[in-house]
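Input structure tokens:
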């Protein structure tokens, strides 16, 4: 009779610790993995702000297509960073400054776009239900927004292992990922929440120490092109915000990598500890 392997029980605290452990121990590798996504982020922000400056306002192109454009570009950026970081965290494969585009990248990108759509649909559906009840109580609108976020994040938690599987070239579908995380959903949910809290608090603290000068410039306080000081202020503000955003993307990737290692016995191995 075949012996069944016990499925390990995930812990939100352990997954969070794993994500920070691998990030702090591998900052050199992270800088390589994040270099191209950072360059793309700054390039797009520069192009959008330059168009806005030339048009004297948002304009129909920037104002109308910016959400769609950002969604596509963010999915590409997430793919470049996610594939590199999953493969480093699970396989100890060193990131490259200019990685070749492989089938793993295309599959990862396809899931990123598909799950973005499904998540927005889930949030919108829940919010519309509570919005329909808003005539009974204004509080229903707030509950709808919160409920939509919870439902969306729980759904993403249950299917989050699609990402490391795609990065490694493993065949895993939506139903397979859902089954793989059965009875593990809330541990993943809270791990994705917990892993972001220190980074967000650090960002807010850093912004407060600087008196909001850089953050205000990034938000449009000093338009790009208004002399060298304005351009430099924009650049440092945009770079700081981009680095923070990429770090905030990396930590949940570490959570998913740790969960995939622990739930997939064939992929389970110690996380790398060498920073260089």
């Amino acid at each position: 009779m075949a012996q069944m392997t016990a499925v390990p029980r995930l812990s939100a605290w352990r997954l969070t610790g794993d994500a920070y452990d691998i990030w702090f121990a591998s900052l050199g590798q992270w800088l390589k993995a994040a270099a191209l996504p950072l360059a793309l982020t700054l390039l797009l922000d520069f192009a959008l702000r330059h168009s806005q400056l030339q048009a004297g306002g948002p304009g129909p192109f920037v104002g109308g297509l910016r959400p769609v454009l950002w969604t596509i570009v963010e999915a590409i950026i997430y793919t470049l960073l996610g594939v590199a970081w999953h493969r480093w965290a699970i396989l100890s494969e060193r990131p490259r400054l200019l990685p070749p585009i492989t089938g793993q990248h295309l599959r990862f990108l396809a899931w990123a776009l598909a799950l973005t759509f499904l998540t927005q649909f889930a949030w919108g559906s829940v919010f519309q239900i509570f919005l329909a009840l808003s005539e009974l109580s204004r509080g229903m609108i707030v509950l709808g927004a919160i409920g939509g976020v919870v439902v969306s994040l729980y759904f993403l938690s249950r299917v989050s292992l699609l990402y490391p599987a795609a990065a490694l070239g493993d065949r895993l579908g939506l139903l397979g990922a859902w089954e793989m995380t059965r009875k593990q959903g809330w541990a993943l949910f809270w791990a994705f929440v917990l892993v972001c809290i220190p980074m967000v608090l650090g960002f807010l603290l850093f912004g407060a120490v600087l008196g909001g000068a850089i953050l205000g410039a990034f938000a449009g306080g000093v338009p790009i092109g208004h002399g060298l000081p304005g351009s430099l202020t924009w650049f440092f503000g945009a770079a700081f915000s981009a680095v923070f955003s990429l770090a905030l993307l990396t930590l949940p990737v570490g959570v998913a990598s740790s969960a995939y290692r622990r739930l997939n016995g064939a992929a389970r191995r110690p996380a790398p500890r060498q920073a260089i």
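The radius of gyration is 20 Å. DSSP finds ten helices and no strands in the chain.
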